């Protein structure tokens, strides 16, 4: 009976993994197919009959996908730095200081993260238009609406796991509040901060609505926006879309693969109350 249950569990996990990985595999093989093969008899062929690199050459040298990748790195990197800086200070204050309305503040932060982006996009566009900030990298500023609330919540959890006695000892030794934060608390909360930074980076990398609304100039398009414009009036260029998707997935995939231990460590360290 135990062996049967174990075998059933293995089969269930295998089916789940296949279902999760198959779309990525199909995108990858489709990127090597010509337009005729994608829509023709070879549409469901696993191995392309006549593999081609034309889709990759087109998106790299004609459609400007590398410029979009550069823009995504600038936007996602800048967003990650300033969001982590702000979220760290906010989360530390909420975790360590006692004040009225503390739980209400946490509830409001969580409520902000639940707002549909469509509600925020209109007012943000009007503000950016009046300030002359459209078609620029200033799009990183409204990114805080989708990344800051989650970051604060995650970091509050990690700061709560750090014993208060360590900070009290540092204060007795003459350390200021900022010295205590950056020399005592921050190193201990590093796994959580690192995990939060990865989550913020990926969220900013994949953001679409704000960028396509605020930056109509193709020079400032990020990866999701650039891929969405790989179409004609009557057709979606699936070969180019899959090739571009394969290219732009590599950076985030490498980040997750290289730092998976730190990510898991950060998620686990804030999930157990000591």
TrEMBL record:
Occurrences of domain ABC transmembrane type-1 (ranges): 69-259
Segments passing through the bilayer: 7-29, 73-92, 104-125, 137-159, 180-205, 237-259
GO biological process, one term: transmembrane transport
Topology versus the membrane: Multi-pass membrane protein
Keywords: Cell membrane, Membrane, Transmembrane, Transmembrane helix, Transport
Pfam family name, one: BPD_transp_1
Intracellular or extracellular location(s): Cell membrane
Gene3D superfamilies: MetI-like
GO annotation, cellular component aspect: plasma membrane
Protein family: Belongs to the binding-protein-dependent transport system permease family.
Name assigned to this protein: Carbohydrate ABC transporter membrane protein 2, CUT1 family
Organism taxonomic ancestry: Bacteria, Bacillati, Bacillota, Bacilli, Bacillales
């Amino acid at each position: 009976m135990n062996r049967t249950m174990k075998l059933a569990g293995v089969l269930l996990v295998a089916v789940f993994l296949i279902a999760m990985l198959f779309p990525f595999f199909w995108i990858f093989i489709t990127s090597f197919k010509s337009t005729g093969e994608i829509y023709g008899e070879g549409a469901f062929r696993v191995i392309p009959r006549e593999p081609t690199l034309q889709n990759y050459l087109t998106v790299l040298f004609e459609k400007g996908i590398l410029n979009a990748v550069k823009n995504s790195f600038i936007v996602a990197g800048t967003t990650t730095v300033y969001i982590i800086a702000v979220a760290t200070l906010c989360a530390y204050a909420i975790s360590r200081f006692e004040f009225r309305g503390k739980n209400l503040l946490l509830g409001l932060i969580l409520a902000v993260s639940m707002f549909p982006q469509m509600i925020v996009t209109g007012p943000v566009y009007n503000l950016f238009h009046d300030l002359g900030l459209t078609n620029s990298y200033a799009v990183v500023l409204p990114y805080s609406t989708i990344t800051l609330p989650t970051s604060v919540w995650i970091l509050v959890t990690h700061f709560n796991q750090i014993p208060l006695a360590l900070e009290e000892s540092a204060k007795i030794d003459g350390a200021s509040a900022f010295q205590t934060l950056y020399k005592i608390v921050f190193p201990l909360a590093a796994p959580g901060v690192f995990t939060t930074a990865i989550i913020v980076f990926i969220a900013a990398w994949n953001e679409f609505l704000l960028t396509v609304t605020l930056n109509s100039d193709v020079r400032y398009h990020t990866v999701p926006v650039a891929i969405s414009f790989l179409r004609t009036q009557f057709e979606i260029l699936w070969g180019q879309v899959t090739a571009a998707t394969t290219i732009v997935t590599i950076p985030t995939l490498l980040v997750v693969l290289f730092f998976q231990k730190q990510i898991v460590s950060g998620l686990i360290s804030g999930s157990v109350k000591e």
